[in-house]
Specification:
CATH topology of the largest domain: D-Maltodextrin-Binding Protein, domain 2
Largest sheet: 5 strands, mixed
Oligomer: single chain
Number of helices: 14
Distance between the termini: 82 Å
Number of strands: 10
CATH superfamily of the largest domain: Periplasmic binding protein-like II
Length: about 325
């Protein structure tokens, strides 16, 4: 055998071995992460970051677990399972209190009022028609805040609020078990699809609340170098996913349809009003102080709310300092 050919084969074999070792090492270096999420268009940035491989590019090996609502996800999260959880504003603050502050909000996925709806039976033509009726929400979710503000501002009394999980609400309304429900989309749209002759959208949350979709993690985990590093990687990849979601709506629709059976028109109608701040800004601070005031009025919170103890700004600040304004004094 030619000496040069022998050397080339030896070199090639060594190169292949090195690649295998390197690949094995890379696989071992992948950081495992469990994320609790749900079937909501607000998570389209996460969907795209996953589909386009942005999380893997950040060295993350993510397991996603679907829950019908953030409130339900937090019931599992508090048992010690999961690393990052997506939920609404009220559930996050309540969990922070229950977990003795071992929770930090790490980013805001979106906020808006228009995609939170009061879906009602056709005979409920105005807020006053709900007097002495049974309505529903996922108690403990942002829906609880919405229904309370709606009834209070419209001076409607005698209403019974039933606790139902999100996926049950459209059926319960169509069957007449409840007169209305207060929750985020797409569940109002789903009720219209199931029984359009029986229900309608009575109101959105505009003028009542701004609902938020947020991500949180345990403060104790974020306080570790590894936890902080993983969270920053996750946020970087997610922000890249948001860019794709905004520019490639066909990809979002395809993902949502394949995984959740959502149609493109529902995706677009639900997500159109989203304000995708991904920032701790003044509107966020004001809305959360208003939420805290309502929680105190309902005896769900005692004392002032210190937002500095509630958020973890290190991740967003490391990516872009402009995404983080100094938090206000306790409110």
């Amino acid at each position: 055998m030619d000496v040069s050919l022998k050397k080339w084969r030896t070199f090639l074999a060594a190169g292949i071995a090195a690649m295998l070792v390197s690949g094995s090492a890379s696989a071992q270096e992948m950081k495992k992460l469990t994320v609790f999420i749900g079937p909501v268009p607000a998570y389209d940035g996460i969907w795209m970051a996953d589909t386009k491989g942005f999380y893997k590019a950040e060295g993350l090996d993510i397991t996603f677990r679907d829950f019908p609502s953030g409130t339900t996800a937090l019931q599992t999260f508090i048992t010690g399972h999961g690393d990052i959880v997506f939920n609404g504003d009220l559930p996050g603050v309540r969990h922070w209190i229950t977990a003795k502050k071992d929770y930090r909000l790490i980013t805001i996925t979106e906020r808006n009022a228009a995609s939170y709806v009061a879906a009602a039976r056709k005979e409920i033509a105005k807020p006053a028609d709900l007097k002495d009726k049974v309505v529903a929400t996922r108690v403990g979710s942002t829906g609880s805040w919405f229904v309370a503000e709606f009834l209070n501002k419209n001076k409607v009394s005698g209403v019974s609020v039933k606790n139902l999980d999100t996926q049950v609400l459209p059926t319960a309304l169509c069957q007449g078990d409840i007169s209305a429900f207060f929750i985020w989309e797409p569940f109002g749209s789903r009720a219209l699809q199931v029984c359009p002759d029986k229900v309608h959208i009575l109101s959105t949350a505009e003028g009542y609340i701004n609902g938020y979709t947020v991500a949180g993690a345990r403060a104790s985990w974020l306080a570790t170098p590894e936890g902080a590093d993983i969270a920053k990687r996750f946020l970087r990849a997610t922000l890249n996913g948001v860019d794709v979601a905004l520019s490639d709506r066909a990809a979002v629709a395809a993902y949502a349809n394949a995984k959740y059976g959502m149609t493109a028109d529902v995706i677009e109608s639900v997500s159109k009003p989203y304000i995708r701040s991904n920032a701790f800004d003044q509107v966020f601070y004001t809305d959360y102080c208003n939420l805290a005031a309502w929680m105190r009025s309902e005896k769900l919170m005692e004392g002032q709310f210190d937002i500095k103890e509630f958020i973890w700004a290190d991740g967003l600040a490391a990516i872009d300092p402009k995404r983080v304004l100094p938090p206000p004094p306790p409110c």
